[in-house]
Amino acid sequence: MKILVTGGAGYIGSHTVVELLSAGHDVVVLDNYCNSSAVALQRVEQIVAGTVAGKAGKAGVLQAVEADIRDRAALDAVFGAHAFDGVIHFAGLKAVGESVSKPLEYYENNVGGSITLCQAMQAAGVFKLVFSSSATVYGEDAPVPYVETLPRGKTSNPYGSSKSMVEQLLTDLCSSGSDLQASNWSVSLLRYFNPIGAHPSGFIGEDPQGIPNNLMPYIAQVAIGRRAELAIFGSDYPTLDGTCQRDYLHVVDLAKGHLRALEALTQPGVKAYNLGTGQACSVLEMVRAFEQASGRPVPYSFAPRRAGDLPAFWADASKAAAELGWTAELGLDQMMADTWRWQSMNPEGYSEDGSCKP
Ligand code: NAD
Ligand code: WQD
Predict the structure, then answer these.
(1) Which of the two ends of the chain, N or C, has the fewest CB atoms closer than 10 A to its terminal CB?
(2) Residue closest to 311 by CA, chosen among 278, 279, 282
(3) CA angle 6, 164, 271 (to 5 degrees)
(4) Which residues have a Cβ under 8 Å from the Cβ of 178 and sit 6 or more positions away?
(5) Residue 92 CA to chain centroid, in angstroms?
């Protein structure tokens, strides 16, 4: 297949491009690099050259286009130059706190950008789409574990609302047919839980700009000495140790889920899938697991609760297992070991010259 990957230079996108190329698919990445580096794609090529060389299969070809998903003319040019079998749509803004202070930017990029992308796809006759959604669409009041039969809930920030809106617009597209002609659209809404970890090579991983918002990169930066200590937001939640629990999954497992979802787009219609492990882990458990994997101490102190955090949620991941044949295979130890390898090989993230020293 030939696949357009929007946001393919980013954290989850780059890991997915490795899996696509390794499986022999050709990939065009479209990214404006607003939260990523073209160096990530050089590293992807290095990984694929290393892992696929000598194996029976032939790796796919990677091309990159620097463009914005809100730029219709640029999208038309890309669709005009390639015959795509489908699109995996990662591009968007993802910082929850920033979305509260900059709602217009979030709706413009995430919702407006998705509309422009769908318009360009429709004009080009490409109707298969895998969309990066989030467990956040279940909202604040959903019972755990989250299961796909639950309705989308009340979201607590513009980022979450933008994901819900795009899910709704894609659902509407899939039912936009008439009595005479059914809709051609075939869409998979992938609801990620908490992706962490890095490629086992240590060549690609999560490279947040500025102070990390998320737990795993923060812990990794404390361990490498870039930050003094972790502030744990809340110690009085109704959980086993008082800290919040989440369903953390390895980004390589998550990347593989995209291939399964793409292959399953054989019929028109929309389907939502949870991608998680089905197990929850507390912040303190994460700290201990990271210390064990890295051999480094992770100093922490308790801080007040962070606004908007839910005590605990995790996935019912049985639908993806039954319908996509996908289950998360990599455990917490592997997530921690791979995060540490990425962090220690790239203490400052992607370097400008693209080098990576094992
Ligand atoms: P990321 O920021 O690393 O990747 C997003 C990529 O999209 C970046 O390379 C960025 O430069 C690009 N981009 C942003 N706006 C763009 C635009 N207008 N045009 C072109 N490119 C643009 O984020 P990620 O963690 O890899 O997340 C990928 C997707 O998954 C996002 O849509 C995110 O909302 C969603 N998601 C992420 C998580 C998570 O915890 N990381 C969880 C659930 C859902
Ligand atoms: C995990 C736990 C924090 C940082 C977010 C988005 C969600 C999805 C994934 C995109 C929480 C605690 C964190 C720190 C801490 N993204 N924490 N100290 O909030 O579950 O999910 O990322 O779709 O939409 O909301 O992940 O990694 O930020 O936090 O104690 O410095 O770690 O309070 O309990 P979260 P996270």
Answers:
(1) C
(2) 282
(3) 75
(4) none
(5) 10
Could you report the average pLDDT of every consecutive run of 10 residues in the chain (358 residues)? 98 98 98 97 95 72 98 98 98 98 98 98 97 98 98 97 98 88 93 98 96 97 96 98 98 98 97 98 98 97 97 98 98 98 96 55
* Within a domain: 154: yes
Interface pTM (ipTM) of the complex?
0.99
Mutate to test the pocket of ligand 2, among 283, 287, 313, 339 (most ligand atoms within 8 A of CB): 283
User: Does residue 350 sit within a domain?
Assistant: no
What's this model's pTM, rounded to 2 decimal places? Answer: 0.97
Residue 206 is part of which domain span? Answer: 2-345
What residue's CA is closest to ligand 1, atom 19? 68
Output b/e per residue, 292-316; b: 16+ Cβ within 10 A.
ebbebebebebeeeeeeebebbbbb
Is residue 28, in this structure, part of any structural domain at all? yes
Residue 33 Cα to chain centre, angstroms: 16
Q: Residue of the nearest CA to atom 17 in ligand 1?
A: 68
